[in-house]
From TrEMBL:
One of its GO terms (molecular function) is DNA-binding transcription factor activity. Keywords: DNA-binding, Repressor, Transcription, Transcription regulation. The keyword Electron transport does not apply. This is LacI family transcriptional regulator. It holds the Pfam family Peripla_BP_4. The lineage of its organism: Bacteria, Pseudomonadati, Pseudomonadota, Gammaproteobacteria, Oceanospirillales. It comes from Kushneria avicenniae. Residues 10-64 form the HTH lacI-type domain. The keyword Iron-sulfur does not apply. SUPFAM superfamilies: lambda repressor-like DNA-binding domains, Periplasmic binding protein-like I. SMART domains: HTH_LACI. GO terms for biological process: transmembrane transport.
Length: 341
């Protein structure tokens, strides 16, 4: 690696490219070195020295740069993640933070591409909901984020990878509340439509339901499948052709519940929560269901609180460089037909 000639000014982004880090990391190496890992700081400073880069002091009257936060969601067409992203965006505006929102479309390749684009943009931090709910999921980009000195806050899905904290739903409690509501109903055969069996979300919610129903006379059937609408609908269409039919169902998220409604409609059977139809409970709730005349008992989550906690963790990580891994857990609340909250 050769140093630049005196006639060519080495820019901050040149050093970042050579060192394999973000421009923000290079800036911090000079302005806030305590926020960087010692090895990262040393690599940046050595690269800058070799290239002949000279850091310029910020003029006293230069306005302070706003932090830039990236948000990566797995399904922005899912109202749950869409509302979370909107809440983060509004908080960013109120807190003078620029927010870039990206959709990974439940694709490992697109998730990685979104991370790389945000690194290239020089973001200070990322609020990340990974595409997998398997805690063992650990794509290689986590190491690149760590090298770049970018704070990572996990949202909703927990994984064993380097991060600065996370905000999660109390899935066991969600399932327990759903099971206790179902236990109070005149139900004999309950079908749970779930995500993958190794998902932490699935394990928590199904365990909570089982705990609530322990000792009851309700016959329980669990289908482990996918958290999206189409696969659930396909399975349930086939299941509805085989008696005895369930007289109650629990959808473990909003997309699963939409798949349930779709399957009943295509089968020509009375819809859940309508005369002659089975009882239905939805964890996560379906946005706007009341407007369609469908009041479905559900567990709902305070998404503004989740977004606020994530932004607080980002702020703490940027100010202190802390990697304490603070774990915030949000409890859902039972929403019944007629409730206005």
């Amino acid at each position: 690696m050769e140093s630049s000639s005196p006639s060519t000014r080495v820019r901050l982004k040149d050093v970042a490219l050579e060192a394999g880090v973000s421009t923000i990391t290079v800036s911090r190496a000079f302005s806030a070195p305590e926020q960087l890992h010692p090895q990262t700081r040393q690599r940046v400073l050595e690269t800058a020295r070799t290239m002949g880069y000279v850091a310029r002091q910020r003029a006293a009257d230069t306005p302070e740069r706003c932090p830039v936060i990236g948000v990566i969601n797995p399904q922005l067409n899912n109202p749950f993640f869409h509302e979370l992203a909107c809440a983060v965006s509004q908080l960013g505006e109120a807190r003078r933070m620029d927010v870039l929102i990206m959709d990974s479309h439940d694709s490992p390749a697109q998730e990685e591409a979104a991370v790389d684009r945000l690194i290239a943009c020089g973001v200070d931090g990322i609020i990340l909901t990974v595409i997998s709910s398997d805690r063992r999921y650990r794509p290689a980009y986590f190491e690149r984020l760590e090298q770049a000195g970018i704070a990572v806050i996990l949202m909703d899905r927990e994984v064993a990878a380097p991060h600065h904290g996370g905000v999660y739903i109390d899935n066991l409690d969600c399932g327990y509340q759903a099971g206790m509501w179902m236990r109070r109903q005149p139900v004999e055969r309950l079908l749970i439509l779930s995500g993958p069996s190794d998902s932490l979300v699935t394990i928590g919610r199904v365990s909570g339901i089982r705990e609530a129903l322990a000792g009851s006379d309700i016959a329980l059937e669990v289908h482990y499948g996918d958290f999206s609408m189409a696969p659930v609908g396909q399975f349930l269409e086939e299941r509805l052709a085989r008696p005895p039919l369930p007289d109650a169902l629990i959808g473990l998220n909003n997309q699963i519940t939409l798949g349930i409604l779709s399957a009943y409609r295509r089968a020509g059977l009375p819809l859940p929560e309508q005369p002659g139809g089975p009882r239905l409970f939805c964890i996560d709730g379906i946005a706007g269901a009341e407007l369609l005349g469908m009041e479905i008992p559900s567990i709902r989550h305070d998404l503004v609180t989740m977004a606020t906690q994530a932004m607080d963790l980002i702020k703490d990580a940027l100010q202190s460089g802390s990697r304490r891994g603070t774990r915030q857990v949000v409890r859902g609340h039972l929403h019944l037909p007629g409730d206005t909250g």
